[in-house]
Amino acid sequence: MTQIEARRRAGKCRWNVRQRFCEWKMPRIRDGRPTRWGWIVRHVSGLQLGRGTDIGAFTYINAKNGVVIEEAVQVGSHCSIYSVSTIDDKEGPVRLKRNCRIGSHTVIMPGVTIGENTIVGAMSFVNNSLPANSVALGIPARVVRRLPAPRIGRRMGGRNAEGLAAVSRKGRCR
Fold first, then answer.
1. Which residue range(s) make up the domain with 134?
2. How far apart, in whole angstroms, are the C-alpha atoms of residue 54 and residue 147?
């Protein structure tokens, strides 16, 4: 029996959809070296990582000019997040706001902000900021649908990003 299963049976963890967030801990990140989960960050000092984030394997983050990933953000595998681009000489901070979801193989360019609760489809190229509560996809990514805020703030067994933040700060699950 795993530690999470034991906690669930003892009634200390009730999240059934995303059990790993019950015991979420800040990952150890070293510059240019893969984390335990296989993603890499360059310029670690420029990265701000919110609680309860889920970053997929083989994702690359260049945080030279700052990358802020807020609480409960999910980034799929094989994504690239750049705060600097040597190809077109663009630079700027990147911000992924609360509860947004980024599909696998997506590229996010410098100076982009992805709004709260926004969903970005897989294999998208995001070179402009995206508004909150929307679905965007494509090359370049375009908003294809707006979502009402109450319908999409719910993840992780009915808890929204605010619920996750409150549980994470207390360091325990209820």
1. 31-149
2. 22
Q: Looking at the domain assignment, is residue 83 inside a domain?
A: yes
Asked if residue 112 is part of any domain, the answer here is yes
Owner of token pair 């000092």: 45
The pLDDT value given to residue 2: 59
CATH number of the domain that 145 lies in?
Answer: 2.160.10.10
Q: Which residues of 21-30 are buried (b: 16+ CB within 10 A; e: fewer)?
A: bbebeeeebe
> Which residue, 110, 123, 113, 44, is CA-closest to 81?
110
CB 139 within 8 A of CB 125: yes
pLDDT tens sequence across 92-103: 999 999 999 999
User: What is the model's pLDDT at position 31?
Assistant: 93
* Low-confidence stretches of the chain (pLDDT beneath 50): 15-18, 151-174
| 45 domain residue, yes or no | yes
Alpha-carbon distance 44 to 137, whole Å? 28
Parallel, antiparallel, or unpaired for β 113-114 and 125-126?
A: unpaired
Could you tell me if residue 58 is inside a domain? Answer: yes
What's the domain count of the chain? 1
